[in-house]
Design goal:
Layout (H helix, E strand, L loop, with lengths): L4 H5 L7 E2 L5 H11 L3 E6 L2 E7 H9 L10 H4 L1 E2 L10 H11 L3 E6 L2 E7 H24 L8
Parallel strand pairs: 1-2
Antiparallel strand pairs: 2-3, 3-4, 5-6
Amino acid sequence: MARRIVPDLVQNQVLTILAPSLSVRDAAKAMADRNIGAVLVAEAGRLRGICTERDVTHRVVGKGRDPNLTTIADIMTTDPVVVSPGDTPAMALEIMRRIGCRHLPVMDGDRIVGMLSIRDLYAAIHEDLEEGLRQRDDFIMGSGYSVAS
């Protein structure tokens, strides 16, 4: 059975959701404190965008802007591409590859469910590859099968 984003990769996440009016410094601090590479940006419970380390680096630091005076709304990626809970990791990875991103919000309709990172996908793919190798080795080496004497 194919894995699904929820519950196989994303479950029981503590989401970091910030208001677009907060400063970029607030976003950077939240990412540093939680050791994450992106935060969701929402207003009145509705997803407005995503703010990533790359947004901070390229759109603030690289441009010499003041992170205390620049708002998240000024630099966030608005209307980000999202995935659904029932999507497969392979689908999500293809989206990330195609658009060149490392994080995708997981949405169930208008409800924010989680955040999927490229790290989550690589871990799942690694597990799938290891399981495939185990199954191949069992088939070739006959593990679990024996000839009675």
